[in-house]
Amino acid sequence: MISVSKRFAGFRTPASVLEDRHLSNEQKRTALLAWRASLRKAPRAISREGRSPAELIEEIDEALKALRREKAARGKGS
């Protein structure tokens, strides 16, 4: 079985991408999309924590939704 890295570009979780204050929202989005794409290439792999790519993809999708909600909220405040 293929092992999926527990990290992506130094991030442990999709939430940690969102928390990085040095990245713009577009950079966060790009990183999350790249992470998701890499996981989709190894659908049967398991992370070192025992999580499947599907579980990580679900977390990434939730992080992407949070970015969209934040963007929408900023748009309403303008």
The run of helices and strands is EHHEH
- Portion in beta strands: 5-15%
Number of strands: 2
SS content category: mainly alpha
Helix content: 55-70%
Biggest pleated-sheet summary: 2 strands, parallel
Mean pLDDT: 83
Overview of this structure, please?
The chain has 78 residues and is mainly alpha-helical. It is built from 3 helices and 2 strands, in the order E-H-H-E-H. It has helices spanning 14-19, 25-40, 53-77, and strands at residues 3-4, 46-47. A two-stranded parallel ribbon has the order 1-2. Helix 2 (25-40) runs antiparallel to helix 3. It starts with a strand and ends with a helix. The relative contact order is 0.20.
Write the layout of secondary structure elements.
Layout: E1 3-4, H1 14-19, H2 25-40, E2 46-47, H3 53-77
Parallel strand pairs: 1-2
Helix pairs in contact: 2-3
Which descriptors apply to this entry?
5% strand; mainly alpha; 78 residues; 60% helix
